[in-house]
Structures are given as structure tokens and as C-alpha cells.
Amino acid sequence: LAKTTQPISMDSYEGQEVNITCSHNNIATNDYITWYQQFPSQGPRFIIQGYKTKVTNEVASLFIPADRKSSTLSLPRVSLSDTAVYYCLVQTFTSGTYKYIFGTGTRLKVLA
Amino acid sequence: GAGVSQSPSNKVTEKGKDVELRCDPISGHTALYWYRQSLGQGLEFLIYFQGNSAPDKSGLPSDRFSAERTGGSVSTLTIQRTQQEDSAVYLCASSQQTNTEAFFGQGTRLTVV
Fold first, then answer.
1. Nearest CA to B38 among B107, B113, B100?
2. Chain A contacts of B108, Cβ < 8 Å?
3. Per-residue pLDDT reduced to its tens digit, A63-79
4. What's the CA gap between A59 and A76, in Å, rounded?
């Protein structure tokens, strides 16, 4: 099963681009990677999902290299309201069922 | 409903009692998930349903935990003979299918005293 690790914390300044990497060994070609944002006392909120190369939506980009041993969430021009914990989630299909493995979470602090 | 609804939002129970947590998913979502988040910790996957079926129950922490889903809608997570280590926020999520965006509820904060 994939193990997923993330940096514990990151600091950034408003207007900067932030890249958060999730390391996940042994994921299969069709395993999906999803990123969630979580504020205190709230459930996680979906940011972006993909399973290969690059995906972009209105709030973020997701980069998955060919070796699929990591993925990177890119947040362009962060603001103070982006201060939150960010989790990657690997969805893997094994032995006829799905497994869902969250990363350890990265606490992002955006400074003025 | 507009989103995933969980009840109760908070539950305090005595050690050894049984508790039942409820999740109302978004209408039409076939997949439903239960996660646990201990204080200040990450998210631990417990179980998922595709329709009313749970293909894999190995993520449940012990045999005191069980879950069911009826009518392809409401799900309940039951913890028997609660222990202090069961204290956590229990989060439910649903999605249209198992590989699409999941929407989370606000969670049930369970405290075992």
C-alpha cells in the first residue's frame, strides 16, 4: 500500500506561489491523487484531482511526474485566507477494492 | 440536501456505552466514506460504501466498529462499548462515484469520558 508523506508545515507571504509536495511510493498507473484543504473545526474541502501529468483548475494546479512517486499542489498567489492544512489523498485499487490513504498534512501559514 | 449532513455534531458518552453516528449524503451520490480524525492529527480512512455495499471493512479499527448504509442513502457508524481512545472527530463524505470529488460533512465530535 502507498505511504504518503508531506512536509509538516510551510510559511509563505501573500502573493507568492506555494508548492506543496506529497511523496507516495508504489502507486499504480490509474491511482487518483486528490488534494484537500481543511480549516479548523471544518471538514476537508476539495481542491483538485488528477492521476497523471498536469491538471489545472481555477484555484490550483496539480503536477504528477512520470515516475508517480510524488505529486505537487501549486497554489498561485496565495492570500491570508489560504492559511489552512492541506492534505493529499491517494486512491488506490487493490485486491478488488479501493483504499484511501491521506497524507500527513501540511500546515500552510500565509503571512502579510 | 445541499451538503453532507452529520448528526449529532457533538456527542459525549461514558466509557462502555454504545454510540451511533449518522450521515446523510448528498442526494444521488452513490459513494459514501467514513474517516476519523483524532485531535490535532491527520485523517484515517475507516470504510467506504458503493451503494449499500461496503467491499472492504479492514479499515475499521476493531470489531467494536460497524457501519451500514440503507437505501443507497443514509449511513450509520456504530461503536460498541466505547473506549477513551475512540474519542475523535468522525467525518463522513460522499461523491457521485468512487473516483470523483468527495464532499465532507462537518463531522461528529465524539468524546468518551
1. B107
2. none
3. 999 888 899 999 999 99
4. 8
